Amino acid sequence: MSLAHALMTSLLEKSSSGYDLARRFDKSIGYFWHATHQQIYRELARMEASGWIASDLAPDGGKTRKRVYRVLDAGRQEVVRWAQEPTPPMDMRDDLMVKLRADAALGAHSPLSLDTEIERRLQLHRTKLVAYRAIEARDFPAGQPLSREATIQHMILKTGIMYEQGWARWCEDALRTLHTLSPEASESPAAPASTHTSQTPGAPDDRDRLSLAPEP
């Protein structure tokens, strides 16, 4: 996805000035697609030059130079084309996982102490979860009928809620696990010798299986 598609989606919801669009973006789509205000203004200029959007002077009697942007038919068609295009899910990329692997590889006397970092992340996820819950209570009160648009927006918000819940639970579990590890338990015992002497031809051995454990 490009920033242009995210901005046109927001403009399809409501025509806006660049300033108002940037503010709304921060409070909605910006939760899962970050962009600075400078990037937004530059992209608006490119989209207008491409014929996807147009702008008109704000109806304020000329008191300001504010321009209100709206999506043109060509822009709407581009959003439809993009939205129907299959895209792969994002792969997980988190340096904390690599740091934990380093901690495990350094053994029982590892100088690393990642508890503080995990605790910090736990608080960040809890804070965002509280914010999402507040949005849910404000915009999607229980028992209130929702329009099709609002139902889909609520579905998106619930994705964010479940994401933060999952990470918060992982952090809590990781902290409990690290607190129970003794120096002796950090060293894995040697694997017993295998008594298996035959293998089905073509069957994968342990090294071929997908695993998060260290490779032999």
Structure report:
With 216 residues, the chain is mostly helical. The protein has two domains: 3-84, Arc Repressor Mutant, subunit A (Orthogonal Bundle), CATH 1.10.10.10; 95-182, no CATH class. The chain is built from eight helices and three strands, in the order αβααββααααα. A three-stranded antiparallel β-sheet has the order 1-3-2. It starts with a helix and ends in a 30-residue tail after the last helix. Mean pLDDT is 85; it is low at 190-211. Residues 92-178 form the Transcription regulator PadR C-terminal domain. Residues 11-79 form the Transcription regulator PadR N-terminal domain. Pfam families: PadR, Vir_act_alpha_C. Residues 182-194 have a biased composition (Low complexity). InterPro entries: Tscrpt_reg_PadR_C, Tscrpt_reg_PadR_N, WH-like_DNA-bd_sf, WH_DNA-bd_sf.
Strand/helix succession: HEHHEEHHHHH
- Give the biggest beta sheet: 3 strands, antiparallel
- The computed structural class is mainly alpha
State the helical fraction.
40-55%
Beta-sheet strand percentage? 5-15%
Shape call: elongated
Which residues form runs of ≥5 with pLDDT under 50? Answer: 190-211
Q: Roughly how many Å apart are the termini?
A: 39 Å
- What is the average of the pLDDT values? 85
The number of distinct β-strands equals: 3
User: For this entry, what is the oligomeric state of its chains?
Assistant: single chain
Question: Over the alpha carbons, how many angstroms does the gyration radius reach?
Answer: 25 Å
- Total helices: the number is 8
Number of domains: 2
The largest beta-sheet arranges its strands as 1-3-2
Protein name: PadR family transcriptional regulator
Region (Disordered): 182-216
Domain Transcription regulator PadR N-terminal: 11-79
InterPro entries: Tscrpt_reg_PadR_C (IPR018309), Tscrpt_reg_PadR_N (IPR005149), WH-like_DNA-bd_sf (IPR036388), WH_DNA-bd_sf (IPR036390)
